[in-house]
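for the recovery benchmark. tokens below, seq after
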């Protein structure tokens, strides 16, 4: 089998703030910016990985989602417990310094984890947990 990861999905509730974080702070390229019914879907990804993307989508727009479910999604996003992603970098210290200087919400400074990796954690503007580990 030849299967690869093409896209992951994270909710965003402010497209401009999401662009400022993912494009301007993390350095991802904007690949698509699609509007529909007053909402925006953004597709971003690392320039050197054209086949891997993150789709930043409006929360709770999936068909069949009830108003109660939309409310729960919004509450979980506000607490930072709804979604997350794990990224990797060869220079965690420099990446963390850039995030900190860019006013990202810091959850955890770079730490050596007992399971053998060094990582840090921040939240994006929508509250998604972004963990970044150092490549070995």
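predicted aa per position
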């Amino acid at each position: 089998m030849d299967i690869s990861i093409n896209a992951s999905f994270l909710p965003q509730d402010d497209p401009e703030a999401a662009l400022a974080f993912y494009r301007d702070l993390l350095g991802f390229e904007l690949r698509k910016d699609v509007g529909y019914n007053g909402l925006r879907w953004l597709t971003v990804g690392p320039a050197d990985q054209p086949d891997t993307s993150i789709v930043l989508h409006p929360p709770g727009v999936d068909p069949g989602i009830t108003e109660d479910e939309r409310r729960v999604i919004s509450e979980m996003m506000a607490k930072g417990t709804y979604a997350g992603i794990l990224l990797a970098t060869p220079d965690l210290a420099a990446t963390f310094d850039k995030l900190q200087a860019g006013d990202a919400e810091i959850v955890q400074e770079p730490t050596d984890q007992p399971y053998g990796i060094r990582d840090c954690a921040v939240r994006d503007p929508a509250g998604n947990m972004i963990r970044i580990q150092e490549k070995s």
